[in-house]
Specification:
This protein has 343 residues and is of the alpha/beta class. The protein folds into 2 domains: 181 residues, 3-Layer(aba) Sandwich (Peroxisomal Thiolase, Chain A, domain 1), CATH 3.40.47; 126 residues, Peroxisomal Thiolase, Chain A, domain 1 (3-Layer(aba) Sandwich), CATH 3.40.47. A hairpin with a 3-residue loop joins strand 13 and strand 14. The longest helix has 23 residues. It is globular. It binds acetyl coenzyme *A. The site of acetyl coenzyme *A has 23 residues, from helix 2, helix 6 and helix 8. Acetyl coenzyme *A binds next to helix 2, helix 6 and helix 8.
Amino acid sequence: MTNAYIAGTGFYVPPRVVTNDDLRTVYGLDTTHEWIVKRSGIEARRYSDEGTATSDLALEASKHALEDAGLTPRDLDLIVYASLSPDVGFPGGGVYLQQKLGLCDGADAKFVPALDVRNQCSGFLYGLGTATSMIEAGVYKNILLVGAELHSAALDWTTRGRSIASLFGDGAGAVVLRATDEDRGVRGWWLGADGRFADVLSQKIWDLKKRPFMPVNEHGVGQVEPLMMYAQMDGKLVFRHAVERMIGALFTAYSAKGLTHDDIDYFLFHQANLRINQYVAEQLGIPEHKLLSNIQSYGNTTAATIPILLAETARSGKLKRGMKIAMVAFGSGFTWGSAILDW
Ligand code: ACO
């Protein structure tokens, strides 16, 4: 049987570090370091400079992942690009990344398909399931899977937006999935969604039910009111459902594969809030040393959190061949997922 394994990982975060105190002193956010750390565990995040696109972050992460896999962009058969913050409304970010990777250049241009995934914090796991299935089916051999987000362009640093503005940061993570006949790689993936909660965490920008689809001023220029322009969230409801769904997603994986916590070497949870992850781990009795975290430094980078955490962990040398990894995510939609991998 053909398996899909992660042959290379990479990540990129912009160099500008924004601490919790910077949010207050530079961005004027009515908050404190203590409030943010107590509620979320976040100490800092990275922001991009104006002129940077999400696909630029994705490009850097992708280059690292390809190099780590010993491949070039021309070896790819497919790009899967997960983001809730694409460069523009449409097209999706995958085609911008394809172009930036040089795949459209020269006589040997390779016009590989570019698939965009729109599942927010669960985007990486939805992409992993899609890419793995295509490899196992024998359709493709080498797939670049990227999670990339640029949140800093659309945060509301007024008191109205502070509970969201304090959580999110920019960054990208990428993996190269390859086909192998060896007994390793992605062992299973499980996804879910509950559309009843679609509006609980959303950023609407426009409403196509309306004519015009956003209010216009007397010059015909579109006007987006703050409630539409910025993400809105019922934080407490998200917190509660995140805990329930993440525990459920992990148990779905365990029961499908006959596993317990003891079989797992590392848990890579979506980095939305350290308190959510610690609570899930406590409820389940997962030992602290198995729960990996980097939200303290990067905040919530949505589709990018798991691949950034994976790439950092791989780079640190912690991951050894044969180790078992559990990934779990929950986010806007609501959507969720889990995956089990043998490294
Ligand atoms: N600094 C200071 N005070 C703040 C801040 C801030 N950054 N943000 C909110 N507050 C205030 C509120 O205005 C409110 O004040 P009030 O009582 O005077 O009205 C008070 O703190 C409590 O606000 P809540 O929103 O009820 O605070 P809560 O304890 O629920 O914590 C938080 C908010 C951290 C967002 C929490 O609900 C949470 O973590 N929820 C999960 C959110 C999440 O993880 N989302 C992302 C997951 S999905 C994805 O990644 C897309």
